[in-house]
Structures are given as structure tokens and as C-alpha cells.
């Protein structure tokens, strides 16, 4: 058994491709969300919150001595910091950052692309990681899984 979850793609790359698609689509057909500046400021707020959550989650993972990158083996189950609330705070952060960027650039394309990204992340990344962690850590991961929600 390979000691990694075999995700379909690194999540930041997946969201990066999604963002490029949004920018290209927006160039040809803007589809603005609003004529007001509210989406921009709300977007910056979500971007800041998502970025802070990502940094916090990464710091906690590194302090626990495990790899942040899913291309490398997980060495321990992290259940502190944001991992007390969600088993996937880094992926929640990616969604917040993407949604924040969508609002900041004021385009419905971001919402459309996010709706496509969510099942790709769920089936191609999250569920694969969960199967990997169950195989690797057994009962201890199942106990963590029973205590902490997958998302929120």
C-alpha cells in the first residue's frame, strides 16, 4: 500500500485551475453579481478569514509533525486547533478564499465554478483521504471521525 491518499489533484491546484477558468469566462462574459461595492468588501473579508484559517491549520499540522501536502504520508491525526471543529479546515479555507475572490472580482462565474469544484473535492480528495486515514490509523481515526464533523 502506498502511504498517501492518492487524491485526484492537489487541492490548491484544483482551485487555481478553477480560478483561471473564472477569469477567462469573466473576460468573455462578465456576469456581475452586483453593481454595488458590497460584494468586493465582503469578498475581501472572506479572503482574509479563509487565509487566516489556512495559516492556522497549517501551523497546527506542522506543530503536530505531520505533512500538510496530501502527496506525502500523514504521520498523525491532528485533533487540535481548527481540527477540533472540522476534519477539513484547510479545505474549508480554500472554499472561503475562492468565494472571497469570486465576490471581489464580482462574477457569478465563480459561484458556478465553485459548485463544480465542491463534488470534485468531496469525491476526489476528501473521501480518498478518509479511506486512507481509516486504513492507516484504524480505530483512532474512526473515533476522531465520530467526534468531529467532516466540514462544519
Structure commentary:
Helix 3 runs antiparallel to helix 4. The chain is mainly alpha-helical and 152 residues long. The protein contains 5 helices and no strands. It has one domain. 28% of the residues are buried.
> Which spans of ≥5 residues are poorly predicted at pLDDT below 50?
none
| Rg, nearest Å | 17 Å
Helix segment count?
5
* Average pLDDT taken over every residue: 96
Strand content: under 5%
Report the span from N to C terminus. Answer: 31 Å
Q: Summarize the helix and strand pattern as letters.
A: HHHHH
Helix percent band: 55-70%
Shape: elongated
Structural class: mainly alpha
Biggest sheet, in brief?
none
- Integer tally of domains: 1
Number of strands: 0
Topology:
Elements: H1 11-28, H2 38-64, H3 89-105, H4 108-137, H5 139-147
In summary, what is this structure?
By secondary structure, the protein is an all-alpha fold. The protein contains five helices and no strands.
List its traits.
mainly alpha, 5 helices, 152 residues, single chain, 66% helix
Amino acid at each position: 500500500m502506498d502511504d498517501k491518499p492518492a487524491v485526484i489533484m492537489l487541492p490548491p491546484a484544483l482551485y487555481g485551475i478553477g480560478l483561471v477558468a473564472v477569469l477567462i469566462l469573466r473576460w468573455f462574459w462578465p456576469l456581475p453579481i452586483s453593481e454595488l461595492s458590497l460584494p468586493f468588501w465582503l469578498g475581501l473579508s472572506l479572503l482574509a478569514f479563509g487565509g487566516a484559517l489556512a495559516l492556522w491549520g497549517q501551523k497546527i499540522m506542522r506543530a503536530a509533525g505531520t505533512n500538510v501536502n496530501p502527496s506525502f504520508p500523514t504521520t498523525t491525526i491532528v485533533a487540535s486547533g481548527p481540527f477540533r471543529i472540522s476534519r477539513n479546515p484547510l479545505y474549508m479555507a480554500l472554499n472561503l478564499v475562492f468565494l472571497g475572490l469570486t465576490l471581489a472580482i464580482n462574477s457569478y462565474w465563480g459561484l458556478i465554478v465553485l459548485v463544480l469544484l465542491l463534488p470534485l473535492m468531496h469525491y476526489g480528495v476528501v473521501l480518498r483521504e478518509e479511506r486512507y486515514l481509516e486504513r492507516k490509523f484504524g480505530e483512532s481515526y474512526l473515533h476522531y471521525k465520530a467526534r468531529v464533523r467532516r466540514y462544519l
